[in-house]
Amino acid sequence: MEEARLKTGIWVKAMLRQAGQKGNPGMVLHHGDDDAGGVLIVLLGRAGHMSVLAQTRTHDGRRAWFRATGEAAVDQAGVDAYVTRQMERDPDLWVLEFETPDLMPPFEAKMI
Prior knowledge:
Blueprint: H1 8-21, E1 26-30, E2 39-44, E3 50-57, E4 63-67, H2 76-89, E5 94-99
Parallel strand pairs: 2-5
Antiparallel strand pairs: 1-5, 2-3, 3-4
């Protein structure tokens, strides 16, 4: 069964708050479409290690995430290149960044 879909702007605010309450500060790097924009998550770990998560949907319509930059950590240049390519394709995209030492999402997230 497909989950109810929140407007992206509301979802972003909730995830920033949830992560902040867990001690993982986050910020909006790019403000996308408030109603239905896609979301990229930049995870900033220790020693400059980074990863980008991209949003997708499972077969039953639930929100899920995958490591868009691959399983291995990348550097700032790798993140910037990926985010730039995606924003050229979709200017309504949101880009959020969270500090997380283990490169895991600091909010409830199904990883695939």
